[in-house]
Amino acid sequence: MHRIRFLRVFAVLTLFLMTSSVQAETIPPAPVPSFHVIAPAWFTPLSFPLDAAWAAFGYPDRGTTYYASAAPLGSSPYWDRFNPESERYEAWFGVYVIADFAYANEWSKPFLSACDIAKSIQHLQDLAVADQFAWQTAYGDPAIVATVTPGSARVHPVDGRWFAMEFQLQSHTDVGGTIPAFPWYPPYAQEASQVTAYANTRFNTFYLFTYDAVSKHFLVKFFSGTEWTTLDGVHHATPRHVYFEMLQMMAATTFH
């Protein structure tokens, strides 16, 4: 009788330890980005969970975005990204760390071409659109638009595991809100003489991405420049040296 009880206890403990081991293997810790270079005009990246934003579109992915934009200048409390006269107006730099990536199975080969990861490429664009919807919602856009320009996506292999992608995203500026005041967000009256509230805007976006089979996370580094028109009819675009600034930050970002 004692032997039977011992075997039962042993079996239960063994099952518990095996289950714990499997769970530890299938839910590895998420990689954390290290930002080794942040340009002087930018603030240190903030982080925000995107689970709800992606779930709202029916996507199973879970993850976090780490993002940076143009910091306040001088004594102003407002991010310079909201200033239509700024070279860094509406520009972004950051990272996605994504768990439960919907098309992780596409990354099983040791060497890949863009054709092998076609669904991953499309899904990354979809996640970016959902992220933009969430941002515009937070900033009170009454008629959100966020669409990838058809035919604008270009994908280039980097080393067989990393890929670069660029595409154009048509959306709105986030300037013009009547939302409850964020301390970093200027009142629209300050910008009303320069841009229409929630004006049409084109974002030229760049992504560097891979799937990390060890941590089971999809890793993305990104930045985007902007094209916008002020009320005087002048067309503006993020200048080349700001793109170079963002490229330097992207190149110096690693995961651990």
**% residues in beta strands:** 25-35%
H/E series, N to C? HEEHEEHEEEEEEHE
Largest sheet: 9 strands, antiparallel
Question: Residue-averaged pLDDT, rounded?
Answer: 90
**Structural category:** alpha+beta
State the low-pLDDT regions, or none: 1-25
Number of domains: 2
Query: How big is the Rg?
Result: 22 Å
**Number of distinct helices:** 4
Number of strand elements: 11
What is the terminal separation in angstroms? Answer: 52 Å
> What is the general shape?
globular
**Helical residue percent?**
10-25%
Account of the 3D structure:
This protein is of the alpha+beta class and 256 residues long. The protein has 2 domains: 1-30; 31-255, no CATH class. Helices cover 25% and strands 28% of the residues. The strands form 2 sheets. Strands 2, 3, 4, 5, 6, 7, 8, 9 and 10 form a 9-stranded antiparallel β-sheet that branches. The protein is globular, with a radius of gyration of 22 Å. Mean pLDDT is 90; it is low at 1-25.
Write the layout of secondary structure elements.
Elements: H1 2-26, E1 33-35, E2 46-49, H2 51-55, E3 62-68, E4 92-99, H3 118-138, E5 146-148, E6 154-157, E7 163-172, E8 200-212, E9 217-229, E10 235-237, H4 240-251, E11 253-255
Antiparallel strand pairs: 1-11, 2-3, 3-4, 4-9, 5-7, 6-7, 7-8, 8-9, 9-10
